[in-house]
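Ticket opened by: R.M.
Priority: normal
Category: complex prediction / small molecule

The reporter submitted a protein together with iron/sulfur cluster and asked that the result be attached to this ticket for the collaborator who will pick it up next week. Submitted input follows.
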Amino acid sequence: METAARTYEIRTYGCQMNVHDSERLSGLLESAGYVRAEDAEPDVVVFNTCAVRENADNRLYGNLGHLRPVKDGHPGMQIAVGGCLAQKDRDTIAKRAPWVDVVFGTHNIGSLPALLERARVQSEAQVEIEESLVTFPSTLPTRRESPYAAWVSISVGCNNTCTFCIVPSLRGKEKDRRPGEILAEVEALVAEGVLEVTLLGQNVNAYGSGFGALSAAPDEVRAMTEGGQSAFAGLLRACGGVEGLERVRFTSPHPKDFTDDVIAAMAETPNVTPSLHMPLQSGSDAVLRAMRRSYRQERYLGIIEKVRAAIPDAAITTDIIVGFPGETEADFEETLHVVREARFSSAFTFQYSKRPGTPAATMDGQLPKEVVQERYERLIALQEEISWAENKKQLGRTLEVLVAEGEGRKDEETRRLSGRARDNRLVHFTAPDERVRPGDMVTVEVTYAAPHHLVADKPVLDVRRTRAGDAWETRQGEGQDAGQKGVALGMPSIGRPAQPASPVNGCS
Ligand code: SF4
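Result attached by the on-call engineer:
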């Protein structure tokens, strides 16, 4: 008699890196014969954790506690904990929650299926944490969540030491992936129908530094940097040569390493989108110094000015931390000044909270909650005003929108569809009579602007059926259990599109 495949569920916390790692965990599990649990209780629950937030550990143990009686009533159920918190807390997790079966770190996600099997056979918790990367994660099987847009890792880890950030100690030093491998993955994705890729790294502008001295770098890197061009600018231009790739995005750049040749590559490569997410964190030089972020306000605004000169329609977004230890009212005013000058189309704003293990957590000058809250509200009010004013400039414009799935919560009741413009603005548009699929492109005229989205309520001007739309349709036909068929090394597969993950502070 055939036994049913074991089912799994992955609960992801934190940043885009984790979202993409979860695509790999899904791919690994499906390659090993597991299938995604749809409605029923899963046989395996994997927590892909984040250590960025204060109290992240309390929340994890709370969730694990809730799962304990479920596990007791479900023979054979296994629980695995991976990600940054697992890397940080290691043995503690198995001690505090002995009903956990597997603990694995950020450097060895490829071991998950073997660890689950070993835990099952030995009836004993398996804890395996590596200090450095075992396999570059992009060589692992991946279950892509979207048929039209994909993350592509170009590097992991970070060589910076921002005092609020736990990433360097948990993800290690920057390691770069060879350009040939990155481009091969991009080409494979495009061949599967993907139209948009987002190049992913903690500090994409430092791409290339992970190979060490240029003289020691692979030939392909040296070719890319000929004439003194930075490796990241070379990579963007190389993505411009991938036929069928319509949109290239990247996240996140660090202002310290942002070079003019990257701006030129953005402006001169037609498929690189007119959008830039560049973390500010603070507008105050004193706070930036305390954060150990080595650019200053003048440099940040200088980059924005150059980007605006080269790409006038660029939508620029950012991350800002309010209430970093020692931040004075005058420091905060500097942040408001940058926000007014930069005119971000939107900003991810965070109230500073201590992350255990980071230098900032023990700094003097921690601010009372009410001070941080009051500043935060002022910042939000200003940014909302600017976002709205910037969006109003889009009224009457004609935009090409990549139709998305799951981006418009009210689409059904408003009879609209939703998608992203080239600059990544969210657009809700009236559904045309003809059928439009996620992954297709529509051309619409903007009729209304809200601070966080645009509306196009006139009839759609054009519908372009795409390979991505075909790929989406094929997936629907294959059904939800088609996961195993779609898993391949670094290749797309079946699934729901990734929800847009907001950056969780810093570059992560
Ligand atoms: S905030 Fe970004 S640049 Fe700074 S240490 Fe963290 S990952 Fe690196």
